[in-house]
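As the next step, I wrote out a protein sequence along with its fold in C-alpha cell form, included below for the reader:
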Amino acid sequence: MAEGVTVKHREPTDKEIRLVIAASSAGTIFEWYDFFIYGTLAGLIGAAFFPSDNETLEILLVWAGFAVGFGFRPLGAILFGFLGDRLGRKYTFLVTVTLMGIATAGVGLIPSAASIGLAAPIIVICLRILQGLALGGEYGGAAIYVAEHAPPEKRGFYTSFIQASVVGGFVLSIIVVIACRAAFTPQDFAEWGWRVPFLLSIILLLISLWMRLKLSESPVFQAMKAAGETSSNPFKESLTYPGNPKRIFVALFGITGVLTTIWYTAFFSGLSFLRGPMRVEESAVEWMLLAAGAISMGFYIVVGKWSDRVGRKKPIVIGALASLFLLFPVFWGIGALANPDLQRSAREAPVTVAGEACTYDPFAERQASACGRLLQDLTSLGVPYDILAPLSAQEQGAIAEGIAASGTPVRTQSVESPPTLFAASQFPSEDGSRREAVQQRLETLGYSFERQTPPLANILGIVGLLLVLGMLSALTYGSVAALLTEMFPARIRYSSMSIPYHIGAGYLGGFLPLIASYIVAMTGNAYSGLWYTWGVVAFGLLVAWWGLPNGPPKDFEDAHA
C-alpha cells in the first residue's frame, strides 16, 4: 500500500494496560538479563572459554563473542519483524523470550575449554548467535505491543517502562552476581559458581512465559487482520514504502546510533573502566553500578512522560549535545575518584617506550618483538604510555647505568627524579616472569597494582557521576519506543522499526566494548576508547537535528496524512 492505513480498534481497559506494561517490562528485564549476564561475568567467561597467556587478547575475545550476538540482531529483526507483522505481536515475542532463555541457560552448561578444547568457544559463539537472533525480535515486539495499547497522549510514558526495563535487566544481572558471590567462596565462584546466574534464566523464562501467555493480541493488529490489511511482505514493503528509506536512515543514525553508544558507554564502559584500568575491587564496582542503575531506571520514565508534552526530538537532541560536552569530563572524574594514586603515578612518572619494531598487536598470542611484548605487559597492567622512535647514538651514550645499546629502553620522565631508563633485554623472556619484573620496576616508581576500594566519599562521587551518564542515556533513550512506533505505518511497523534499531544497536553499540577496548590497547590510554562514542554521537546529533520532527508527538497517520 502506498498510503498509510488507518485502523480502528477497541480501547483497552486500564487493567489490560497495566497487565500489558507489567508483562512486557518483565519479559524485557529477563531477556536483557540473559544478555547482560555475559558482559557482567566477562572476566570469568574469558578464563573458562577463551584462555590465553595474553590477558588483553583474552578479554578482547570475550568482547568479540559479545559482539557476535549483537551482529546477528539485524537478522533476528528481519525474521521476527516479518513474523510480527504477518502473524501478530504476541506470539512472536513469546518465541523470542523462549529462545533467549534456552540459549542463556546453555552457556551455563558448556564444559570449559580445559575440558573440551576448541569446541567450548565454538559452542559459546553459537549460543550467542541464538541470543542475538532472539533479541532482534524482542525489543520491537515489546515496544510496539505497549505502544499500540497506549492512548496517544500517554504513549511516551507507558513505553518508557520498556526502556527502563533494559536497565532493569542490567541491574538484575548484577544483583544475581552479587548474591552468588555471597553464597559461594571466591574459589568456588570462579571455578563453577559463575554458571548459576546463567542457569537461573530457566526460572526467569518460566515467569516471563506465564505472564505473556495471559496477554491478548495487540488491538491494532487485531483490527488490521480483521480488515485484511496486514502486509504480505513486510520486509520488502519496509524498504519501498514512500518515505521509509529516509525514516530508516534517521532511525538508524539519529536515534539508535546515539542511544546505544551512550547506553553502552554509561554501563558497560563504566563497568570495564572501573574493573580494568582503575583496578577497583569487583564487589565495590558491582555495588556502585547496582546503585546507579537502579536509580537511573526512574530517569527513563520521567523523560518518557516529558516527551509526551514537548515531543520526542527535544530530549534526544539535548541528551546527545550534553554527552559531547560531558563524556570525557565525567570519566576523568570517575578515574580521579576511583584510583587517585594511579592517576598521580601516571602524572608524576609517565612512561615512554622506545625501541625497534615497537608495535603491539592486541590479537596476537605472542608479540613479535621485545618492545611489543613490553607494550603488552604495560597494557595488561593498565599503565599508560607513549611511544618514541628508537634512541639515537647520542642518547644511547648518555645512559647513566651503562645499559647495552641493543636493548629496548623505557624512559620515565618524573618531575621529582631524573629520567630512568631500562632495557627490555634485561627482563626474562618468559611472559609471566617478564611481566612480574616489569611490575616490580614500575612499583619502585610509585605505581601500585593492588585492587582498590575507594573511601565512602569517593564511592558516592563515582555513583553521582554514573548517574550523570544514566541521565544522558535516559534523555536519548526514554522516548525512543514511542518515537519509533510513531515513525512507521502500523502494517509494517514491527519490521520497519526493528531493522534500523537492531542494525544500530547490533553494530554501533554491540561492537562498542570490543572497539573501545582495542583502541585503549593500541594507544595505552584508558580514556581513548571514548572517542568512538563521541564520534558516533556527534554524527547522530546532526542526523537527529535534520531528520526528527519538531513539535508534539503525532501518530503516523496524522503526521503523514
The longest strand covers residues 351-354. The chain has two domains: 14-339+453-559, 343-444. The two ends are 14 Å apart (CA to CA).
